[in-house]
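Students often ask why inverse folding is considered easier than folding. One informal answer: many sequences map to the same fold, so there is more than one right answer. In these notes we will look at a single instance of the problem. The structure comes first.
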C-alpha cells in the first residue's frame, strides 16, 4: 500500500531532522497518481506534501514528492523544503533514488543500485562526496508496495497485518514497517502503522480500499502531526496561510520537579527517569558519564557525573573504530576550510586535552551568529556560515577535532536550563583512553552533569544517523525527578517534604544551596513556603502596604553577558548599571521594577511589584542591591 509506507517515512524523517521529510519521486510521463496532502502541527496549518507517480518510457515507475512547510524553533521561523525521487522496475526492484533538502542550506543525495551495493553521491555547498553502502535485495519500491496493498486491502479484516521493506535514503537504512487493521467501516480501513526504526511510535491512518489515503496522524516530540487529503488549491493555500509557524521546541521540553541549583558547577546529579509510554524503549543511557543505579519496567535511576581526563587511564584502552576519525558527509574533517580552522584554533596547545579544550572554546567564539533558523547543517556549511544552534556547534567541533587527529562523535540528549530539560547536542572526543564530553554551545571547557545523554553517533553514512532516533523519541517520553545533587563534596537530597533551600533570620535570607545572601527592605517579611520550581522563583517577600518582592534564581545556557542582563534600552524606562559584590548588575524598569545580578551560571532577579511612585520603587531596589552578598 504505497500511501501507507511513504506517509510513515515522512513522519520518520520529520522526527529525525526536526521536520525534514522524505516520500518519493516525479515524472513528466504518464501520470498514475497526483496527490496533495495538507500538513498540520498541533492543529495549526503548516504546509503540504505533493506526490506524483508515473510510468516512464523505459518501463520503470517513478515516484516523486515535494514537501514544504513552516515551523518555528524558539520563535525563529524556519521553512523546510524537501524533494525526493525513487525509480523502480515493474517487479519493484529499486534502480535509483535521490533526495534534496533545504533547511536552509541545500543537500542533494543520489543513490544508484549496483548489484549488492548502493552507490551514493552527496552534493553540498562544500563539494561532492561519494560512499558505498550494502544493498538488501529484498527491498522494494513504493509502487510495488502500493500494488501489494491494493491486493490486500479489499479483503483485510481487523487484526490482519501487512509488512513492507523499504529503504530510506535520508537515514541510509532499511526500514521494516508493519500496518495492522484496527477498524473497518465500508470501504474505509483504519490502520495502525509502526516501524523497526521508531519502536513504540504509532501512526493512525485512514485509507480507502482503493489505496486512497484520507488522513494520517501520529504524536511525536510532544506534538500532533497530521496530514489529510486536499485539493491542490487547498494545499498551496495551506503554506501561504501559515502566518504563525507552529512552535516545535515548547513541546519537547521536560519540566523538572525541582530545579538544579547552579547546574554548571555541579559534580553529580541523580535522577529518576519515568517513561510515559512503556511501548517506547528507554534510550541507551549507559556511558562514561552516566550509570544506571536501579532499573524497573518504565523507570530507572540514573547517576550522572562530570568527567574529565585522568592522567593515568589505567591500562591500554583500545582506540575507537576508524569511523570516529575519518571524514564523512556530515563531518567533513578533510575540507580545506575546516583543516585551516582546526590549525588556527589548536595553535599552541601541547596535549590532546589542551587541543580539545581550545577547539571547544574556539568553535564557541567562531560561530558568531547563534541562530535557531538552521535545522541540521553539516560541519562544512557551518564553517562557512558561522551560524547555527547546538547541533551546528556539535558537528563543527567534532570535525575540527578529527582534523587534529582526535576521534570524535556527536551526542544528543537533554540539558538543564531555567527549570526545564530541553533537547540538546554536544560533542565527545577521545582523550587519554576514554570519551570526554565537551559542549561548544557553552564553551566552558567541560560538560556538567545536567547534560543527560540519550545516544551518540559517528555520523558516518547519511544525515544524522539512525543512532539518534532513540534520542529524539526519548525527548518527550520522559518525566524527570531530581533526587540528589553534589557540589564540592556536599550532597543535597530532594523529594517530598524537602526542606527549604534557604534560611530566614529576620530580614535576611541566606541560601547555601545557591550561594547568596540578601536582606528584604525595612518592613518586608520573607514567606517561608516552598519555592515555585516551575517559574524559577526561589522566594518571596511581602511589604507592609501590599508590595511584593520576588527573588528568582535562573540558570543560563548560552554565553550570557552584561548586555544580555540589561537588555535593550527602552525610551522612558530607567536603566542603571551596577556592580554588586564584583558581579555585573542592572537596576531599572522593564515589565516590572527589577534588579538583576549575573553570578557565573545563574542570574538572580528580583522583581518589585508596587503601587509606589518611581522614586520610591527605585530607592527600594537600590536598598536591596546594597545588601546582596555571594557565599562561596
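Output (designed amino acids):
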Amino acid at each position: 500500500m504505497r500511501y501507507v509506507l511513504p506517509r510513515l517515512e515522512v513522519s520518520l524523517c520529520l522526527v529525525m531532522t526536526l521536520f525534514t521529510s522524505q516520500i518519493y519521486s516525479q515524472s513528466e510521463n504518464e501520470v498514475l497518481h497526483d496527490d496533495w496532502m495538507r500538513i498540520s502541527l498541533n492543529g495549526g496549518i503548516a504546509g503540504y506534501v505533493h506526490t506524483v507517480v508515473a510510468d516512464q518510457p523505459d518501463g520503470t515507475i517513478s515516484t516523486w514528492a515535494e514537501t514544504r512547510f513552516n515551523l518555528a524553533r524558539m520563535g525563529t521561523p524556519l521553512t523546510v523544503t524537501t524533494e525526493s525521487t525513487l525509480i523502480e522496475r515493474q517487479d519493484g526492484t529499486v534502480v535509483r533514488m535521490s533526495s534534496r533538502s533545504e533547511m536552509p542550506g541545500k543537500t542533494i543525495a543520489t543513490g544508484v543500485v549496483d548489484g549488492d551495493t548502493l552507490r551514493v553521491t552527496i552534493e553540498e555547498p562544500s563539494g561532492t562526496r561519494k560512499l558505498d553502502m550494502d544493498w538488501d535485495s529484498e527491498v522494494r519500491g513504493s509502487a510495488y508496495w502500493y500494488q501489494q496493498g491494493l491486493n490486500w486491502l479489499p479483503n483485510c479484516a481487523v487484526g490482519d497485518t501487512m509488512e513492507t521493506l523499504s529503504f530510506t535514503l535520508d537515514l541510509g537504512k532499511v526500514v521494516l514497517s508493519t500496518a495492522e487493521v484496527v477498524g473497518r467501516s465500508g470501504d474505509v480501513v483504519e490502520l495502525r502503522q509502526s516501524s523497526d526504526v521508531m519502536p513504540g511510535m504509532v501512526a493512525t491512518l485512514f485509507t480507502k480500499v482503493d489505496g486512497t489515503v484520507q488522513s494520517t496522524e501520529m504524536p511525536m516530540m510532544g506534538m500532533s502531526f497530521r496530514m489529510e487529503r486536499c485539493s491542490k488549491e487547498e494545499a498551496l493555500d495551506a503554506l501561504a496561510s501559515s502566518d504563525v509557524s507552529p512552535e516545535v521546541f515548547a513541546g519537547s521540553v521536560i519540566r523538572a520537579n525541582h530545579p538544579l541549583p547552579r547546574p554548571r558547577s555541579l559534580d553529580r546529579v541523580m535522577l529518576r527517569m519515568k517513561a510515559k509510554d512503556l511501548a517506547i524503549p528507554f534510550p541507551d543511557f549507559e556511558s562514561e558519564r552516566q550509570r544506571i543505579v536501579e532499573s524497573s519496567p518504565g523507570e530507572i535511576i540514573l547517576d550522572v557525573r562530570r568527567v574529565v581526563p585522568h592522567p593515568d587511564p589505567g591500562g591500554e584502552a583500545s582506540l575507537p573504530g576508524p569511523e570516529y576519525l575519518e571524514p564523512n558527509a556530515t563531518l567533513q574533517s578533510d575540507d580545506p576550510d575546516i583543516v585551516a580552522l582546526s590549525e588556527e584554533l589548536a595553535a599552541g596547545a601541547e596535549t590532546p586535552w589542551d587541543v580539545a579544550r581550545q577547539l571547544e572554546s574556539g568553535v564557541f567564539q567562531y560561530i558568531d551568529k547563534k541562530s535557531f533558523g538552521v535545522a541540521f547543517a553539516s560541519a562544512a556549511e557551518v564553517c562557512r556560515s558561522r551560524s547555527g544552534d547546538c547541533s551546528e556547534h556539535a558537528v563543527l567541533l567534532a570535525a575540527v577535532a578529527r582534523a587534529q587527529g582526535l576521534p570524535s562523535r556527536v551526542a544528543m540528549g537533554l540539558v538543564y536550563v531555567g527549570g526545564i530539560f530541553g533537547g540538546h547536542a554536544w560533542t565527545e572526543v577521545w582523550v587519554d583512553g576514554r570519551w570526554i564530553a565537551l559542549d561548544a554551545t557553552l564553551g566552558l571547557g567541560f560538560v556538567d552533569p545536567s547534560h543527560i545523554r540519550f545516544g551518540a553517533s559517528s555520523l558516518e553514512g547519511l544525515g544524522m544517523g539512525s543512532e539518534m532516533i532513540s534520542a529524539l523519541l526519548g525527548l518527550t517520553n520522559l518525566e524527570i525527578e531530581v533526587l540528589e545533587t553534589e557540589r564540592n563534596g556536599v550532597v543535597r537530597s530532594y523529594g517530598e517534604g524537602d526542606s527549604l533551600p534557604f534560611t530566614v533570620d529576620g530580614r535576611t535570607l541566606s541560601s547555601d544551596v545557591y550561594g547568596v545572601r540578601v536582606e528584604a527592605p525595612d518592613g518586608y517579611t520573607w514567606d517561608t513556603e516552598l519555592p515555585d520550581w516551575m517559574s524559577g522563583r526561589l522566594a518571596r517577600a511581602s511589604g507592609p502596604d501590599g508590595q511584593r518582592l520576588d527573588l528568582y534564581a535562573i540558570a543560563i545556557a548560552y554565553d550570557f553577558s552584561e548586555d544580555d542582563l540589561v537588555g535593550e534600552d527602552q525610551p522612558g524606562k530607567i536603566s542603571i548599571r551596577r556592580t554588586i559584590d564584583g558581579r555585573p548588575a542592572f537596576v531599572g524598569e522593564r515589565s516590572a521594577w527589577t534588579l538583576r545580578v549575573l553570578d557565573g551560571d545563574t542570574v538572580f532577579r528580583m522583581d518589585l511589584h508596587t503601587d509606589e511612585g518611581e522614586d520610591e520603587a527605585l530607592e527600594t531596589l537600590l536598598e536591596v542591591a546594597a545588601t546582596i552578598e555571594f557565599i562561596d
